[in-house]
Design brief:
Elements lengths: L1 H15 L2 H25 L4 H24 E4 L2 E4 L10 H28 L27 E4 L3 E2 L7 H16 L5 E2 L2 H4 L9 H8 L3 E10 L2 E10 L5 E10 L3 H15 L18 H14 L4 H17 L4 H16 L5 H18 L4 H14 L3 H14 L4 H13 L3 H14 L4 H13 L3 H14 L6 H11 L3 H10 L3 H14 L3 H15 L4 H10 L3 H13 L21 H9 L5
Parallel strand pairs: 3-5, 3-6, 4-6
Antiparallel strand pairs: 1-2, 6-7, 7-8
Amino acid sequence: MALEGGDMSVFAELKRRNVVRVAVLYGLAAWLILQVAEVLFGLLDLPTWAGKLVLGLLVLGFPLVLIFSWVYELTPEGLKREHEVERHQSITRETGRKINYLIGALAAIAIVMIVAERFVPRAAPNPGATQAGAPSASAPVLAATKSIAVLPFADMSEGKDQEYFADGLSEELLNLLAKIPDLRVAARTSAFKFKGEKVDLQDVARKLNVSHVLEGSVRRSGNKVRITAQLIKASDGYHVWSQTYDRTLDDIFVVQDDIAGEVVKALKLTLLGTTSATRSRPTDPEAYNLALQGRFFVGRRSKEDLERAVDYFQRSRERDPGYAPAWAGLSQAYARQADGGFLPIADGHRQARGAAEKALALDPQLVDAHLAMGWIQLSHDLDWAAADASYRTALDLEPGNAEALRHGGWLAGNLGHWDEAIDLMHKAIERDPLRPNSYTYLGYLFLAVERDSEAEAAFRKALELDPDGAARHRTIGLALLLQGKTDAALREMQQETDEGWRLAGLPLVFHALGRRGESDAALAALKDKYAGDSAYQIAEVHAFRGEAALAFEWLERAYAQRDAGVPEIKCDRLMRGLVGDPRYKAFLRKLKLPE
């Protein structure tokens, strides 16, 4: 009983000196400080250690505050040591009431924050739009809890010659996870931006707007492969799961399914219909290996790389004629050869169509096959309904597929469905925030609806992401020109590094400035050097200068050349002067576009 009475006496003294109240007040204040710091540090892009430093200081401060409140007492004359204050002169009771008010206020604030966090739906900010709709990959966004980026696995093989295999494994995992409806997966283009870089995973997660990152390494020797994978939570950098697999190439699909299953388990998702039993699998492991090499080279797009891609896909197809991904990859390679001018357009798309049809016949659930067919229908056939069906099927199979969203947005824009097109392009950017051409497409759509300052911001974002890309300054110059900022437009056009695009832009600005001779000279140079590649851009210049007959003449040439710009005519503000001409409606009918 004496011990209990002694404890009560000590506790009563702690209460009298307001030590207990100060402890509660400090705890609430510290919690609120941490919540505010988390938001501010994210906005200011401060490193992770800054948050840990604040937490450490708050923890160290707790005993110091308690000691201080025990030793000192607040009096009307200021702070005094507790033993120097006569008990009848003490105002600790009044001070305690004030502390109670503060505790109540902070508790109310904390409750409101907790309720808002738990029950109020939070619309995910669109990383494709910030102020005035301007895209920015650096804008702070709130990552969905169930979101992930699959970074390219590192090649740890002794000969450093398995980069294609490591990339292929990463892409297979990405595609596998992308089929899960409740999981948002960053697209390959953006995730692979960090390939070969020493990265801060939290910075990567912020740029890709994801909450988790999957990374790993591959060490391959002959038919044996060691795969290490680890899932990391971006908010604190902690490993959620990691595993090392020592397998043969024959077991690669089992390993992929195992990794995907562990990710799904960690994120509390449901994996439906994405196991190896429902995916195309080669009967010959070497067919898979060859297809991975083909996929590696098709992503590089040069004439030589595309030729190597075709060779690898053909060899994969020969090893295993029933392996659908090899046929889909071959279709993509043929189409890129045709689009790049490395094959006759008609021949290239004919071969691409045949390979895509074979892939679909072998595996109707293969997303890449639907994407390959959709591109042929969109860019070569001008069959808008069929292309739309292909992309919608791809999205049904893989919700949020960035390529399907991007091309679907381009298709909607060509048809004049501006709101739908802009919405789809924003969604593509959300999944693939570091792909510069998505911002370029978005910029053209903004121009179509006369949101010119937003178009300028989108074009500048594309330049930021890809400073050496063709037409980057020309597009900015075009947005400035349509805003009436002709001097600034001229400066941008003159900075364009690609000669063809520079010559396509200068005649427009010189005409707007009333410098007809210089406009004619630049246009003549464009025709002299690039008539075979830039017929549509030449038609744009004539239309902008009010030369309708010449504009239609060059539009016909562009149509014959299957110029990729032709289907975009309804989006094109430079062509608006032709709209009232009967020849314009006739041209739209030729393109199977609504009038």
